[in-house]
Amino acid sequence: RDILSDQFLEGFGGPQLEENWKEIINRRNRINLVATLPEGVIGFIGFQDTPNFQKEGEIIGIYVHPDFWRRGAGKALMNAALGRMKELGIESVYLWTMSDNIVSRNFYEREGFLCTETTRISERQGESFEEIKYTKRIKEAEQGGAANAHPRHASCLSLRSGTSRATGGRG
Question: Is 78 left (phi over 0), alpha (psi -120 to 50) or beta?
Answer without folding.
Answer: alpha
